[in-house]
Amino acid sequence: MHTPTSNFLAFFLFICGGLSVFAQGISMSPTRLFFTGNPGEIVTEPVTLSNTSDTDYVFNVNTKDWEREEDGNKVYFDANSLKQSNATWISTIASSINLPANTTMEIIVTMKIPADASTSEITNSMLFFTQIGKQKDIAQQQKGIGIIALFEFGLHVYYTPVGNNVKSLDIVSMEELTDTASTTKKVAVGIENDGNMVNDATVELEFTNTASGEEIKLKPINISMLPGTKQVVLFTLPEGISGSYLGVSIIKMAGTNDLRVGEKDFDF
Amino acid sequence: MKKQIIIATLALGALVLGTSNAQAQTATTTVNIILNDVISIDAGSVANGGLVDFNYATAEDYNTTKTANVVNSLIVTSTKNFDVKVKADGANFSFGSNNIPVDVLTIKAATGGSIAGTQNTVVLSTTDQVLIANAPLGSALTLDLDYTIPATESSSSKILGKPAGTYTQTVTYTATAL
User: What ipTM, to 2 d.p.?
Assistant: First the structure.
């Protein structure tokens, strides 16, 4: 006989079982490293790789530079090719990592801050843990094209000078985008990081019909911006929107109660 | 006898008092929940030493667009929004000294997965290209992929006329926090 208690217990065990299945894999924590210190100092931060699967993995450790385009896309470059790169400042003990099945490994990332490092500018790079294929990972067939799929994690590495503590974003534009090839309407919110720290934020946009009072709240979009950069956040409007609306964009910055609010009238 | 009664009474009194004291004690436990950012790729992901094969055995094969739908190509858990990029580790699918350029292959997110975000169709190259941009955080998010080699490519000199064999290349999927 199934009592409510036994049903709950069965459901609980099912959920736990499901979670344990989902949890099997390779994980990296944290996903971003923030270093700080004075020029000439050596600082360290740990990153943990866990292998909760029954398979052994080997990872190559390598670095690249990156910068974010205005649409938010990260673009990678060779290490030490960008002005704000810190790729040559960071190192790990080994250039490859063996991660046996069911093990967790803490990897120390060391940053040697150059003596002539800027005391005001943030630097960044990306540290990659790239899966190395095994001998058995070969295509199976005799005639054709075989794709061997592997994966890698990218770990953000930031250096923030000790004196940098201003978190600030600014809304610099709110524009409707016209695309003659599409009936979909979009509004672009332009944002500038006018502080001197990496800034994570959620951008919201809502419209109020000035005649009927109807409110439309669009799905918020998360962003992360380096100081001195601009980003354009695109919101797709509902199909068939028409009339006069007051658009209000709100930026909620992580780690602070500060808000940024922008308003603009739109005629769709 | 009287002495024994007195001792028993004292012992009982001590026991009762002791119990009372124990009941009166208050224990305080501080529970800390420590959250760390984490990103993981499930071992069940096909992008995990997985193999995708296209077989060209007949004339019809060369004149047909072939699509391999791979369910659960990626299973990602992330505590922050994330991106998935894809790149080939070399410019060609290679069989000995024979090559087929990797741009014959198109990869796109198929319907059915639970990873949201902006999904792009990618013509494979050695450059990191965005497959999924700003995907919302979540647990055990799945990405199903369609690997396609169009007939225009398989019937061209890029593939047609190449020596028989298995041409392979590694494709790497990169997951990073936003």
Answer: 0.82
